[in-house]
Amino acid sequence: MSRLALICAAVAVLGGCSMFHRQMPAAPAAPVAVADPAPAVETIPFRMGVSSATVEKMAKQQGCTGGQGAGLITEPGPVEVYRMRCEDGQMRGKVFMARCELRQCRQM
């Protein structure tokens, strides 16, 4: 019998008995920063480029018309990227983009 009492005491000391365990209160949760529901839209100022007219003609062939026209969104140079917002036509609400290398333009 002394062995049984010794085993029970050892189990209780080592944490085997559930009546000796108390649940510790949980630590308070750290505050979470709430992100904006919609990311901010960066506006690019409109700049004409040497191939703006060419890109506007390409956009019109695809059904994209209206707005300010094709604006340069990269720095002027041998390779330029143009963007045109379609406000009329079958591409209404979309964006037409083109990449021009040495004034040879292709739709992106």
UniProtKB/TrEMBL annotation:
PROSITE patterns: PROKAR_LIPOPROTEIN
Name assigned to this protein: Lipoprotein
